[in-house]
């Protein structure tokens, strides 16, 4: 039997030049976070962690990926800032309590890089598109390349305002 719409592509196929690359895998064959996704998540984590990475001028930084210092973690404030930049609102106290209970945290309840990666491991297993949205909100495209970030745009805009 012939399709009633023979010119229509199958739902899973993609057309157009912008879709020529193969999809980047966020998780590897074993269900662990891929190396490329881990590099992106480390960059995101580093923007909010304590201690902050060594001060680097944004002009020399360009769009290179950040790496967190050894022993870095997110405070409650850093967690809120990350949640706002990612989802538009801070976490509820209940959500924070769950993160502290189930994920890797410091003795004082700061979310470690390992705990941050655990969040994305679980999220990606359950809703990969949500992870893609988060990555996009932090300036990454579908090839996991950092193309821009709101924070860099805001810093640049503030610098231009202060000059003018």
Explain this structure to me?
Mean pLDDT is 81; it is low at 5-20, 56-61 and 157-162. The chain has helices at residues 35-46, 58-61, 76-87, 93-102, 113-126, 128-137, 150-163; strands at 73-74, 111-112. It starts with 34 loop residues before the first helix and ends with a helix. It is an all-alpha fold and 164 residues long. 46% of the residues lie in helices and 2% in strands. The protein is globular. The chain is built from 7 helices and 2 strands, in the order ααβααβααα. The longest helix has 14 residues, at 113-126. The protein has a two-stranded antiparallel ribbon with strand order 1-2. α1 (35-46) packs across α5 (113-126) and α5 crosses α6.
Compact overview of the structure:
The protein is mainly alpha-helical.
Keywords:
single chain, 164 residues, mainly alpha, two-stranded antiparallel sheet, 46% helix, 2% strand
Main sheet: strand order: 1-2
Chain-averaged pLDDT: 81
Output the number of helix runs.
7
How many β-strand runs?
A: 2
Strand content: under 5%
Spans with pLDDT under 50 lasting ≥5 residues?
5-20, 56-61, 157-162
Q: Give the ordered list of helices and strands.
A: HHEHHEHHH
Question: Helix fraction?
Answer: 40-55%
CA radius of gyration:
19 Å
Q: Pairing-aware structural class of the strands and helices?
A: mainly alpha
Euclidean distance between termini CA atoms: 68 Å
Shape: globular
User: What is the makeup of the main sheet?
Assistant: 2 strands, antiparallel
């Amino acid at each position: 039997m012939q399709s009633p719409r023979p010119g229509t592509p199958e739902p899973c196929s993609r057309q157009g030049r912008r879709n020529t690359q193969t999809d980047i895998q966020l998780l590897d064959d074993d269900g662990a976070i891929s190396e490329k996704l881990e590099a992106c998540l480390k960059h995101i984590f580093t923007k909010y962690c304590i201690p902050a990475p060594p001060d680097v001028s944004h002009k020399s930084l360009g769009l290179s990926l950040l790496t967190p210092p050894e022993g870095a973690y997110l405070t409650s404030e850093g967690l809120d800032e990350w949640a706002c930049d990612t989802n538009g609102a801070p976490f509820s106290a209940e959500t924070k309590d769950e993160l502290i209970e189930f994920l890797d945290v410091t003795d004082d309840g700061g979310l470690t890089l390992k705990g941050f990666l655990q969040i994305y491991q679980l999220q990606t297993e359950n809703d990969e598109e949500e992870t893609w949205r988060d990555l996009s909100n932090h300036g990454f495209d579908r090839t996991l390349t950092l193309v821009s970030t709101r924070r860099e745009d805001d810093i640049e805009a503030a610098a231009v305002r202060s000059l003018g």
